[in-house]
């Protein structure tokens, strides 16, 4: 069996330090799992598995939970603002086409 087909079958091997760093991006730096996995070039399911393995009990601590809530609130504000901009743009272009 060739090296490339073996790599495809078994996937990548990552060090424990790399996995822990990826989990810290979510638990300590406040990135979403999607953001962290995209930055690292991982699938979401890979990072999710590492979260379950390496986060204490698979759960976030209170401090990590607060950071996650803060990050989600910021994202929610940004998305609401973007939605309002899109609504206004749609209204503008609808009135222009009449």
What features would you describe in this structure?
The chain is mainly alpha-helical. It has one domain. Helices cover 76% and strands 0% of the residues. It contains 5 helices and no strands. The chain has helices spanning 3-10, 16-27, 33-40, 44-54, 62-96. The longest helix has 35 residues, at 62-96. Residues 1-10 have low confidence and may be disordered.
Key traits:
5 helices; 98 residues; 76% helix; single chain; disordered N terminus
Major sheet: size, sense and barrel closure?
Answer: none
Number of helices: 5
The residue ranges in which pLDDT falls below 50 over 5 or more consecutive positions are: 1-10
What is the mean predicted local confidence, pLDDT? 80
Q: What is the radius of gyration?
A: 20 Å
**Could you say which overall geometry the principal axes of the C-alpha atoms support?**
elongated
How many individual β-strands? 0
Beta-strand content bin: under 5%
Specify the helix fraction band. Answer: over 70%
N- and C-termini, Cα separation: 65 Å
Total domain count? 1
Structural class assignment: mainly alpha
Order of SSEs, N→C? Answer: HHHHH
